[in-house]
Amino acid sequence: MDFAITSYQQSLYDSALRFSQEVLDKGAATRLSKHAFDKQLWQKAAEFGFAGLPIDEMYCGSGLNVQNTMLMVEALGKGSRDLGLAFSMCAHLFACVMPLARFGSTYLKQTYLEALSTGGMIAANAATEPTTGSDIYAMAATAKKVDGGYLLNGQKTFITNAPVADVFIVYAKTAPEFGFMGVSCFLVEKSAAGLSVGANHPKDCLSTCPWSDVFFDDVFVPETHLIGSEGAGGAIFHDSMIWEKGCLFALFAGALERIVESTIEYAKERKQFKKRIGHFQSVSNRIIDMKLRLEQCKLMLYRAGWKYDQGLDAEMDIAMSKMLISDYAVQSALDAIQTFGGSAMDREMGIIRQLLDVLPSRTFSGTNDIQREIIARKLGLRSA
Description:
The protein is an alpha+beta fold and 384 residues long. 51% of the residues lie in helices and 15% in strands. The chain has 12 helices and 10 strands. The strands form 3 sheets. Strands 1-4-5-8 form a 4-stranded mixed β-sheet. Strands 2-3-7-6 form a 4-stranded antiparallel β-sheet, with helices on one face. Strand 2 (142-146) and strand 3 form a beta hairpin. The radius of gyration is 21 Å and the shape is globular. The relative contact order is 0.11. The mean pLDDT is 93.
């Protein structure tokens, strides 16, 4: 068992961290205060490689394995305060580009994959619905088979990237009576007749990441735009969630490291009662707990990535990693606020912002209660 990363992996991480700090973090405070999505900056990140990390080089991706993809995304989370922009990029890649790359036809990949991997197009994953959330087996959206394709009807809500998307990866029921096997997956262009996108919903967390509702009113989808086979949508969605929970949550691990490092630096400089506050045991113990959480998250994350790359069953490891990172990122952000005291309220320091941005990690890609159900099933405590 080798815990050391290679010089190649270190160079990947260092290049991603440097780009995130020098390019993506520039002007972050202004964007955050205005809740502004910067499409030009998003495209720069895509051109750097973040939109195609694990995508085959023949489609202008980087061809990275899971472990190396995690390292790059972790550096992205650590290097830039604009976690909303980073989350937008990761949602594009792991929930949209990866399903297309892994299950799309040669036609779809040749038509869309290069543009999606290099920033020419932005994608949005349209699965969540107003009444059923991300339970795609209970969704109301339908895709009725007609001559040459399908007619798509329904509403999707809280769809990340929807206001700026060029294409949508849409899940809808083609055969409701077949349950898991009755859901299909489609690629739909924003310009399709009958497709409309609602106004951007402002939010306090990940505020620079745009999201909105999407409506489908008899949208004709050519049969060529079916991803995988009819009825394979459930399996495709499940696969994409494994990528999301595994690789996307490396973003929050990076954010957690930034929280820990900023708290350590503050504790070394801030003085109370003529001593640096890091000298007080109550403060140092709190920071030590933060450091322990960070290292546990990294070990769990890297092990999950290693198992996936080895072709082993990594679903439980990924679920545990997602839970650990989301819970620990929130707890450490709260501990940072406790350490900073009143200074945490300062907008320029951004400590409260860090808490707001990691809070959604507990609910995205399935709540932690859902992760516990997955783990229980893998342990044989639930039926499959």
